[in-house]
Amino acid sequence: MRTLWLRFYASLNDFLPTRWKQRTFKVGFLGQPTVRELLVQLNVPPPEVALILAEGRPVSFEYRPGEGERLSFYPIFYCLLPSQPLHTLPPERPPRFLLDTHLGRLARYLRMLGFDAEHLSDPDPGDAALAQRAGHDGRVLLTRDRRLLARKAVRYGYFVRATAPRAQLAEVLDRFALHDLINPFSRCMCCNVPLRPVAAETVADQLPPGIRAQHAEFYRCPACQRIYWEGSHHARMQRLIDQVVRGNSC
Ligand SMILES: [Zn+2]
């Protein structure tokens, strides 16, 4: 049995019951758990924890705290240059994402803004395969399932708080500081593959009547061969981008 004093900072409080938010609290654990094990018991996803201090010194997820120790947990702060080693290093920029089965709309929105957002839903790959895929590919796993983020295979992950797809998009843009990296209409919304410019004359016979004359630039998805041009969902998508991005500008 270990009695520990714990304090969680900033967004990590989202995972705690109200009585433990924003304060130091005492809690008992059976045995001599590692930091990682106690996080999982508290239902706090380890990939959201960037820095752990035990009595003021940085420790790893495998550290086993002693009786009565004080532990502090910090999330990733993109706006801070950390002086301490981080466990969950911010991934490459722009980050590549893998989305949980239930986040299909969010995946399409992220692709619409040009981000690499893989989504495996048919057939459902299952939690173990999703975690392995994200860890192996170095992708950030986006999910609303904390148990999925507790799997050891996951290196980078984020629990999406919002439930509505537009709010989820705004949240992810904000959380990963993506506003400066938006490159709309550069990726196929269906396949997640970058679009390639294509000469109008080569696709003229595949376009609806009148489109060829009205537009100069066309793009094609090399995977599904779908053709994109300004006007194909463009106005609707531009409105969505304006709403989401403007609503969350720093
Ligand atoms: Zn495609």
Name the descriptors.
alpha/beta; 250 residues; 12 strands; 4-stranded parallel sheet; elongated; 25% helix; Ubiquitin-like (UB roll); 8 helices; binds zinc ion; single chain
How would you summarize this macromolecular structure in one to three sentences?
The protein has eight helices and twelve strands.
What does this 3D model show about the protein?
By secondary structure, this protein is an alpha/beta fold. Among the domains are: 74 residues, Ubiquitin-like (UB roll) (Roll); 79 residues. Helix 2 links the parallel strand 6 and strand 7. Helix 2 packs across helix 5. The protein starts with a strand and ends with a helix. Zinc ion binds next to loops.
Poorly predicted runs: none
| Ligands and ions found | zinc ion
**Per DSSP, what share of the residues sits in E-state strands of 2 or more residues?**
15-25%
How is the main sheet built? Answer: 5 strands, mixed
Average predicted local confidence, pLDDT:
88
Helix segment count? 8
- What's the Cα radius of gyration? 22 Å
| Helix-strand pattern | EEHEEEEHEHEHEHEHHEEH
Class from helix and strand fractions: alpha/beta
Reading side by side through the largest sheet, how are the strands ordered? 2-1-5-3-4
Calculate the terminal CA-CA distance, rounded to whole Å. Answer: 45 Å
Task: Note the overall shape.
Answer: elongated
User: What's the total number of strands?
Assistant: 12
| Helix coverage percent | 25-40%
